[in-house]
Amino acid sequence: MQRQMLSGKIHRGRVTDACVDYEGSITIDAEIMDAANILDSEKVLIANLTNGARIESYAMRGEAGSKMICLNGGAAKHGKVGDIVIIMTFAVLSEEEVKVHRPRKIVLDEKNEIISRTG
What we know:
Elements: E1 2-14, E2 17-19, E3 25-29, H1 30-35, E4 43-48, E5 54-62, E6 69-72, E7 84-94, H2 95-100, E8 104-108, E9 114-118
Parallel strand pairs: 1-8, 2-6, 3-5
Antiparallel strand pairs: 1-7, 3-6, 4-5, 4-7, 8-9
């Protein structure tokens, strides 16, 4: 059996921009992506804690150090600047892999600075 497990998580990120006139995706500061083990073009689930929206998209690397979390395209219709979001990725793992797997999770403050890390 295989199980779908959390792989990477950005907790309590703040949306810094929302750009409807874009193909789609979410642009995230490259340093934040690396810390959460999220790859460029990887599928993400975005949970907007401010308004309850849950959307799927893919991550794009933003400028390192910019602290950017920008909702693009259709995703921009589900959030606005200042909204608090959780961004998650998942991996399909075997029963053996599940036993040793530890997701990488980061928590951000109100300026999108990393304040804690696990995994």
